[in-house]
Amino acid sequence: PPGLSRGTVLGRPGANVTLTCQDKGPVNVTVSWQVEERGAAAVGGRSRRLAEGNALLLRRLRYEDSGRYSCYVGGRLLRSLRLLVEEPPETPRVSCYRRSHDKDVLCEWPLRAKPSPGTRAMLWV
Questions:
Q1: Residue 24 and residue 21: Cα distance in Å, rounded?
Q2: Which phi-psi region, left, alpha or beta, contains residue 37 (left: φ > 0; alpha: ψ -120 to 50)?
C-alpha cells in the first residue's frame, strides 16, 4: 500500500499472512525465523525464535503480532520485515456546520469501526 516503507508488510487483524525469506535460493539450507516484538527495543530487545522454513505463515493476526520478523541461515541475517497489524484507515466523512452566524463551526467525523490502537487523526482547516 502507498505510504508504507519498503520492507513493511501490512496485515489485518484476523487475517493470515505469509512472510517469505528468499524469493529463490538453495533448497537444502535451514532457514530460521525470529521476531522482535513491538516495543521490545525499548524494553531490552525481547525477541523469540519461531518456526523454520523459507516461508513463515502467521494465522489469525492480532495487534500483538506486530513487530520485526527476521530470517537467518546459519546465524546470518538474510531478510528483515516489519509486520504492522492494523485496520486499514477508512476514508473520512467529515461534516461541518454552524448553528448560527455568531457560533463556532463544529465538525464531526463519525467512525464506522473502532480505529486501530495508535491511530491519530488531524483536521486541517
A1: 9
A2: beta
Using alpha carbons only, give the angle 10, 58, 45 rounded to the nearest 5 degrees: 80
pTM of the full predicted structure? 0.68
Please say if the pLDDT value at position 65 is more than 70.
Answer: yes
**Closest CA relative to residue 79, chosen from 26, 24, 22, 37:** 22
Euclidean distance between CA atoms 64 and 8, whole angstroms = 16
Looking only at Cα atoms, what is the longest distance across the chain? Answer: 76
Q: What is the rounded distance in angstroms from the CA atom of residue 58 to the CA atom of residue 72?
A: 18
What's the CA gap between 3 and 73, in Å, rounded? 31
Confidence at residue 80, expressed as pLDDT on a 0 to 100 scale: 94
71: Cβ contacts below 8 Å, ≥ 6 apart: 19, 21, 22, 31, 32, 33, 34, 54, 56, 77, 78, 79, 80
- Reading the block at residue 104, the C-alpha cell is 463556532
| Sign of the torsion angle spanned by Cα atoms 51, 56, 61, 67 | positive
Give the type of residue at 102. Answer: D
